[in-house]
Every structure is written in structure tokens, then in C-alpha cells.
Amino acid sequence: MLQGLAGCVPPRVVANDELPAHWETDDAWVRRRTGIGTRHWVDEGTSTGDLALEAAEGALKSAGTSQVDMVLVATSTPDHPMPAMAPVLASKLGLGTVAAFDVSAVCSGFVYALATASGMIAAGLASRILLVAADVYSTLLAPDDRSAGVVFGDGAGAMVLRAGKRGEPGSVLAFDLGSDGEGHDLIIVPAGGARDRAEPSRYAPEDKHFQMVGRDVYQHAVSRMSESALAVLKNVGWTTDEVDRVVAHQANARILNAVGTKLSIPNDRVVSNISRVGNTGAASIPLALSDAVDRNEINAGDKVLLTAFGGGFTWGSAAMLWPEISTGKSN
Description:
It contains ten helices and 13 strands. By secondary structure, the chain is of the alpha/beta class. A hairpin with a 3-residue loop joins strand 12 and strand 13 (314-321). It catalyses: malonyl-[ACP] + acetyl-CoA + H(+) = 3-oxobutanoyl-[ACP] + CO2 + CoA.
């Protein structure tokens, strides 16, 4: 059951006209290709963990609680290769010795973590869980990579989930998850891990930056999210006509539009904040949900479909009944 919700972005706003001059872009070019007008980038000294903490505090405030039994963090830009971010976050929040771990599924990370949290609650391992999704992709971008540079922003979103009865407002009703490792090299940071240390001569300095084959990823993202969304709708017994809001991973506007078209769901039911914040990785769905609540674009009783696609390849979808909720807005 969804009990609390919050999102945050760093204060620095980067408009299209402020992007590096050597990228040779302008506002019209970026908007036409991506649908993005602005994005938020962290300043030096701000990390993924800082955004995660702010979002977590907001979600706990929204939920009206200071206690949870477990903390999950979905990220692919952790503060350190080890330890995981979740135990550190739990400590900073004063949550004591609760179970805490990270989930790594790139831009599908939030949906995977949501399924993990729901399973933990169903298994009786926790009655209330804090789930945080946070990424700072601006720290991974190659200085000369215009194609990725115009797309990504930084942000975090968080939820508090509690035990409850199926069918109550806030219920997470069904999931569909999948992966295909054959596409792992199409969204990748090649260097910086154990493979790099095992074969250092194999990697160049630029391999420590984010790399993506955009055209191939587009086709996979549209088909996988659409197929997964239909699978979860079948599972829960909803038709596309019954879906009030679709909240997809905010990859770019063309992908969002294509998924809506594939599902025969009109644009006015597809939630999007990508024009203001860009692609924020694992944070994009909870950040979009938080933004939609603040803008009164999603209401209690709505049937909500979530769907995401990310590196790995990974993908996943979820269906939920939206509760009466306000966000712990902090920005």
C-alpha cells in the first residue's frame, strides 16, 4: 500500500540554451528530438546519496511516520562501488538497524524495487518499507557526448509502502518483470568495475562514461514496455480503456508517445514531466508521480499503470490503485 510519496531535484536548472556550446545545439533542436526543455544537474559536492536523503525525508513526512522496517534504494549511480547506499541512508535517517539493500536495474530499478518491496511485505518480512530511487547521470556523461548529454537530468523519488488489504486505495496489484542480457552492451558504462580491473588494457579513459546506442534502444524500449504493460493489465484484468493514468519511464518524449500509441491510450492520460526534468534514470517514475500529485494530474481512485525499460536490458510494469495522498514536497 502506498502511504507516502516525495520527489526532489537539485536546484541547478540547465536550460537547452545553457548546454555546452561545442555540442552545437539549440532549444528547438533539443525539444524536437527529445521533448526536453530543461533538466536539473547537481553541483560539485552533491551526490546521489544527498538527493536520496532529501527524497526519503519527504516521503516519510508525507506518510506521517518516522519508522520503517526496511530500506531499499534503486540506483545505478551509487556514491561508492561498496557499500550499498541503503544502509548508509537508513543510518542518516536514524532508522536504527533495519534491513537495507540496493537494487540495480538501471532505469527499471524503481519497478524492480517496488516489486521487491511488495514481495517483502507479502512474505511478512516487513510491514512498512521506504523505497528510494535516485540517480545523478550528469556525473557519468562524457564531455563530448551530445546525444546523451541533452537527455539526462538528476533527481530522486521516494515512497513509503505499508501492509494492507488488496483492493484498498494505494494497493499495488500486479507486476510483470523481464530481462534480456543480449542487449547489455547497448546501455553501458564499460569501465570502472571488476572487468576493468581484471583486464585494464582493454579499456580506454572514455569507457568510464555512460554509453548508449540510441536508435537500437528506442525500438527495444517501445516494444518491451508496451508488451510488459499489456501483460500486467491482463494479469490484473484491466483493459486499456480502464487505465486512468500511464506513468512510463521518462526516457524521451518520442518513446512516451510511441508507448501510448501502442497501448491505444491518448496522450492526456500519459503522465509526463520530461520537458522540465529530463531522463532521471531510476528516479523518473516516482518523480513523475510526485510531480503529477502536486499538479493535480492524478487523483484518488485512479487506476495507474507504471512501466519502465532500462539497461541490462531490463523492463517491468506494475498496476496500482491510487490513494488519497499529498507529497512531502521539499523543493
